[in-house]
Amino acid sequence: MTELDFNIDTHVTFSVSEYVAIITLNRPEKLNAVTPSMSESIRQLAEFCNSSSDVRVVILTANGPKAFCCGSDIKELDSYQSPWAHRMKHDHCDAIAEITKPTICAINGYALGGGLELALCCDIRVSTCNALFGAPEIKLGWVGGGGMAVYLNKTIGASRASRMLYTGDPIDATTGESWGIVDEVFTSATEMMESVITLATTIASRPPIAAQTAKLNMRAAVNMPLDQAVRYERDLRTICFYTEDAREGKAAFKEKRSPHFHGE
Hints:
The chain is of the alpha/beta class. Helix content is 46%, strand content 16%. The model has no long low-confidence stretch (mean pLDDT 93).
């Protein structure tokens, strides 16, 4: 792994192995509530993952048996010098959403407020059976600011999103799976992480340009009108088709051998 040229908060850990990066929130005694320093570390790590050829897939998870993340540390919210400074901050949710490599969120326990937003910024989400998903900001007098309404609406539909946003009440893992917040629920964190590592390793074995292009393709499918999304997909395919990885894939298929992809 290329050495980091910046320091990260002690409440965030980071590792890379076999092209799989793992960003871990490590403040379980505070339900992994995110401080401004942690937010900055997440932002810097996301930028590193984008720029590093050693990273092809990013897993976002957290330590502790009770919570993935309960959002921003409320005690730290008064540290902003002005409402405008609060508005203009580069949020860690934005940074995770802007990762160009495939992302997987492994959720153990509560994913509330900004914690749910953080999870929704990832491409694939799984959880343990003790997970709770909620947007409780309304109970405190405000609304989410990391894309809560947008991501929930696109993920579970307007009616269900409205129910969560207007009441602030959480839903359990079973409901979260049936609504589409997560696509798989595990009985334990150990089982979940074993499955996530296997999935990430599989994705990392694919041609990295094609994997990143597939992510662009998915985002276009969600956000563009149908005719534009189809045209964009054809443009993306053309770009991929003439990469060295595509040539290697075709050659390996013809020669009945395993391909070796280098991201070129």
